[in-house]
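Milestone 3.1: sequence recovery, worked example.
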């Protein structure tokens, strides 16, 4: 989909096929296990009554900043697993807080691989939680995730100020 035009018929069919792909279905099926694993990697989440809240986002952010104090351009396989789990946890939290939306499997930007993103009703852009965690690590601005969540809940506010 272009930034200023709707999907063409071919693009709609491709998008629909991607949502039924075995890879995406397996990824969706692994959510509970992935979230449970991530809680063990971020001890602050286990201390919360409900880790999938703004307090959980703050714990995710604090843990990511501690884990990547001086981020480089290359990422190890172990770090990539961590980032993927963090992105899933962020997306899960956003979906719960907004109360609507869903995971979709697509290529957000030309040249990027196909992957998971969030689609919310009434919001004309996809949200990429993997980009959200990268913003935390490389932007190093406090409350990045909570501000993004607030913007999603109150869509009148720009996502990134």
């Amino acid at each position: 989909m272009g930034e200023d035009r709707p999907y063409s018929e071919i693009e709609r069919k491709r998008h629909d096929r991607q949502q039924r792909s075995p890879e995406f279905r397996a990824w969706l099926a692994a959510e509970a296990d992935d979230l449970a694993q991530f809680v063990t990697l971020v001890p602050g989440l286990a201390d919360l009554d409900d880790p999938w809240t703004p307090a959980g986002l703050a714990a995710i952010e604090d843990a990511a900043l501690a884990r990547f104090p001086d981020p480089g351009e290359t990422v190890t396989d172990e770090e990539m697993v961590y980032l993927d789990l963090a992105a899933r946890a962020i997306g899960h939290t956003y979906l719960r807080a907004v109360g609507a939306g869903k995971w979709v499997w697509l290529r957000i930007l030309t040249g990027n691989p196909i992957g998971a993103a969030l689609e919310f009703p009434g919001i004309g852009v996809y949200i990429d939680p993997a980009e959200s965690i990268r913003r935390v690590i490389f932007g190093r601005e406090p409350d990045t995730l909570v501000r993004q969540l607030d913007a999603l809940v109150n869509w009148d506010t720009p996502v990134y100020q």
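Strands lie at 102-106, 115-119. The chain has a mean pLDDT of 88.
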